[in-house]
Amino acid sequence: MMKVVILCGGVGQRISAETKNKPKPLIKIGKISIIEHIMNIYIKNGFNNFYLLLGYKGSKLKNYLKKKKKYNINFIDTGLKTGTAGRIKKIKKYIKKNENFHLTYGDGLTDQNIKSLLKFHNKFNKIITMTIVRPPARWGEVKIKKSLITTYKEKRAAESGWINGGFMIVNQKIFKFLKGSSSEMLEGKSMEKLSKHKNLAGYKHKGFWQCMDTLKEKEYLKSLLKKGIAPWIN
Question: pTM higher than 0.85 for the full model?
Answer without folding.
Answer: yes
